[in-house]
Design goal:
The complex is a heterodimer of chains A (about 350) and B (about 160). In chain A, about 25% of the residues lie in helices and about 10% in strands. Chain A is built from eight helices and nine strands. The model of chain A is unreliable at about 200-205 (pLDDT under 50). With about 160 residues, chain B is an alpha+beta fold. The chains are: A alpha+beta (about 350), B alpha+beta (about 160).
Chain lengths: ~350, ~160
Amino acid sequence: MVIAIIGVLIALLLPAVQAAREAARRTECTNKLKQLGIALHNHHDTYGFFPNSSCSKTLGADKNTADSRERISFLPAFFPFIEQQAIYELIKTCVDSTVSNPCNWIWDVNSTGPTTVKIAGQPIAAVQCPSDSEVVTKPDINMARINYRPILGDTILPGGLLDCQRSLFRKGTDGETTFSSIIDGSSNSVVLAEAAVMFDNSKKTHIIGGAGIVSGLSLTSKPSDCTALIASGGLMDSTAITSADDRGRMYGKRLYDARMPVLSLVTVLPPNSPTCGNQAQWDNATTINTVSSYHTGGANVTFADASVRFISQTIDADDPNQLIATVTGISSNHYKNYTGPSIWGVWGALGTINGSESKSP
Amino acid sequence: MSKIFIALFVLSILLINATGCSTGKSNFRVETVEGFVTLDGSPVAGVTVGFSPVDSNAGKPAVGRTDAQGKFVLTATQGGEFGKGTMIGKYFVSLSKETLSREPTAQELANADKTGVMPEIPIVSIIPKKYNDPQTSGLTAEVVKGKNNFSFDLQSK
């Protein structure tokens, strides 16, 4: 009798313990985003501008745009401010090198640059959320995970390196942003957010919210083409991409690659909605990269004032069936041509720093 | 006496587990919406079916996607857990299916690897273009209480 009661009690307690563990992981995750927010401010205090999304001015990569040095991501600029000075020095040495294309494929463990820098597989705990329990296996062994990525506006983005005029992070060769660039107010602009890695090998599932390929996805598509995959079972699982090469491209593990499809997050679809690209070669695809996390009901984001808030996945993001070209009257390249309020509700407004809309969640 | 304590303890644990925290479930009542899309009489697979509320205060945007039989089931996009169906109300309907006019060649993919930008391959609309935009499609639907069934038969001419 007593044993039975104890058994029942333990069975009742176990879910509560699991919930407490997730709550602890979520707190740690929030704290890491806060640290990155503070690093962002310290960067601004030191250099007088915010880090770049590519062609980093801080690293001097904006002077070497002829080779893949321009393709180094936003993250190294944060390193001196999150106690990763050693790796920062390695990357800086590589960028300053006088040989040709010294940092080729720095984001890959099989980097082929003349000054081979083996940093790609080194985990950076400061950018890993413990709730994302993804287990690293072949073929991407030794590629480190990154869970916090910059918000690059509120539009569908193509591949390549872009100058996104609506976000805090800009390409180094196209100028830089300061606090005065944040017209919407630093407490109304999201600059960093969570993204779960694309596939979880251990669970054989896709990222929370799901990822899918919409072959006709273009810069003027309706975001609902992506959301619609939920309804039809069109989302991929980890077995969908059979090519090892394509799988290597898709993981959220390219810490140092600044190409839009592997770096960006956009505030088009609400958190934990699907992520879509127009082809399996993800690093060159046209994408809607949606904010996602393994926390229940939403995701954490950092605002430009370095505050961290939890955004519910039920946040207003207006109607994804809208055609951006007809609503705004601008026919192409909205990521740079489009000014004015976001058409994706409160969530879209948060993703811009200069949309003339001071909405807060 | 001790049995009462144990009972109380079990009850309190049960209550703690039962109340918990909110998980972002849909906070509005949804009605089931299903239907078929045909183009010149034959079913089309992979069509995005969009429902946009006429009045944003009365209705929730919803999407569906047709299967091989042309059948779609709508799901609201702001329901948190993507509850099946959508709210009662009047909707503009948009239908779209766009694909690349051809697959990129191996050479083009290799070039894209170097530049990071995919080649410009024209995108073709399988459904006549005017149906893409909820404002110009001319299709409307009213979701009512209970089961809803809509069929859209499109003409390519």
